[in-house]
Amino acid sequence: MFFEVFRTPESEFRGPVVGEGVLERVWKYMRFFSPSVLVALSIPFFIMGGAWIAYYALAYAILIIGGDLFFGEDKKDYSGAYKYLGIFPYIELVSIVINATAVILFAWMLGLPETDLFGIAALVQSLSGFDAVAAHANNTWGAYAGGFGMAAIGGAINGVIIGHNTTHRTFEPKSVIMGRIGQAFGMFTYFSIRHPYGHHNLIGTPADPSWARRGENFYVFRMRSVYGQYKMTWDLEKERLNRMGMPVWHWRNEALQGWAMELVVLAVFFYAAGWLGVAAMLAVGFVCHTGLELANYCEHQGLVREPSEPFQPRHAWDDAHRLTYWFVCGISRHSHHHSDAQVEEFELKYYGDTDQAMSTPYGYFVSFLVFLIPPLWNRIMIPRWLEWDANYATAGEKRLAALENLQSGLPELVAAGEEYFAQEDDKKTGKSKKENQQNLQQSA
Fold it and tell me: What is the pTM of this model?
């Protein structure tokens, strides 16, 4: 096979569920790629011009928000339920092409009528007789906004979701390369370095820039996190190359390789629409990065870990909302993912709402909207952080959590932090009194 994918031994597969129909089996595999299928359905609207693409982008946004609210939850265990895990990389490859096409079509839109990027309009006219250049002659700002929205969705799916899955297969170079190419269409290639080799080792500690503190404003976190992750990417590559006896400015620097891929994408936009095209693609990248930071903020905020201790399910917020589960390719089962990063995302177990981990209050996409109103998000999360401290944290983590509470600036958490240290002082005082009494008795 072209891809050597990590998979469960054949003897452990349960095979199809009894009574499961053909459509159910197909959907079981394809549900995680439904976001890319919906992007594929936008391609005709890109070609048609006018407001069609804007209406479609709006419908896409309504679907993901409404679906998160009304599609319910899925807590089933799918480990061993996929007889053909090897098919997933091929579906991912097709999905990457689809999403990259949406980004390219946005560049094509921007370039018309002066530039027919890759001869797309000429090809459409030769095949169908449809004059795409004329159809785009009266494009409004709404049309360009719709094209931008679909390009940003395609770039985010490639970078944050499919790129995450593929570049986690560090044992399978073809998957990593495929993922990095897709990530270039969201200005996202650093993720393939920083995420598996930095985030997974440091999460839950201040050493990880993508870990959100309790009470930290999302807008502040987003800027801090992105800067820190670029810096960490460079530092990780510098360290890796130093171990190999190579200078950091070397063609084998994978950070430089990724940024070169991104420059190629920017060059395509420049060819299509000049500096306006470059600015538009950088804006797409900004949205894609924001999408990742929304996820980072949601998945671990305020959950502390002692650096010397291994990651446990309690160190991530799990999520069971069905549409989120489909649209983020299973990664919303985040506790299991961090506990064993080699398990394919499609087979991750849900640990939330158990004695092992807690769950998010909403699906990712609804949560993303709430993040934008920090006081509202803090009000929702304060009781959840305190519950985690009381029922999930170890003795060492309780102290770290109390420090986080004191630094949060949120009155309820500050009070909890002060109470913790007051109790600790009482214990020390009581212990000292007991020791003094024992010493007096011994001396007597």
Answer: 0.90
